[in-house]
Amino acid sequence: MVLLAVLLLVLALISIVRALRDGAAEPPATSGDPSTATSDAGGAAAEKKSALSSPTPESEGQEDGATADEQEIVRSGTVGDGTWMVADPVAGPVAAPSDPGSTVHRYAVRVEGGTGIEADEAAAAIAEVLADPRGWQDLEEVTFQQVATLEEAEFTISLASPPTVDELCLPARTGGLWSCRIGPDVALNSDRWLHATPTYEELGPYRAYMINHEVGHFLGHGHEKCGADGEPAPVMLQQSIDLQGCVPNAWPAEEPGR
């Protein structure tokens, strides 16, 4: 009887060891893990449509190896006050699509208090970029229309302080530096809006890039790589971090092959 009990105990221990070993051999689950949050891949129409409502975050700072020269990039230390000002719609028509049957995407603009950014001025700059013929309008057969309330909007563009953007972008890691798109929300880092990054020499083109990049995610586009040294960078390249040999380019219609 004692021998049988010892035998059963040994068999039980062997089973436990095997179970632990098999479990350790499996790759860790990635769902919901902020360290593995990546861009939507592909470019098929079905994938683009699903991206419009997908909660999957896309951020310039979340991919492995994504770094910035922190001696040059501005970290202002700004902390917003948590209040929001929703901008009034820009007066007059701002978009004239070439195709009357284009899809209309309604958006709202809000700015966090304490950032030093005027909501109406930011909304005017955003509307100008989204209406530019070099942007997504003709390429995607879309029109962007600003609305007065968040309830009317299909997606929201939030300009906020770095800590607030970090919170809005979770589980993506924006590290106080970057912007993101998650589901119907585009979150723009106020430091980047006011100070750009060392990869751009002028603030205006950089703002156009950050708007087109994050709205491009909303339209279903994932991150891209530089095609060749000296070419205009794809808008969906993480240009804030590294141009990979390309030259800065804020406009999807000005990419090679368009």
Automatic annotation (TrEMBL):
SUPFAM superfamilies: Metalloproteases ('zincins'), catalytic domain
InterPro entries documented for this protein: DUF3152, MetalloPept_cat_dom_sf
UniProt domain DUF3152: residue ranges: 80-243
Extent of Low complexity compositional bias: 35-45
Region (Disordered) location: 24-73
Gene3D superfamilies: Collagenase (Catalytic Domain)
Bias (Acidic residues): 60-71
One term of GO molecular function: metallopeptidase activity
Pfam families: DUF3152 (PF11350)
Name of this chain's protein: DUF3152 domain-containing protein
Species this chain originates from: Brachybacterium ginsengisoli
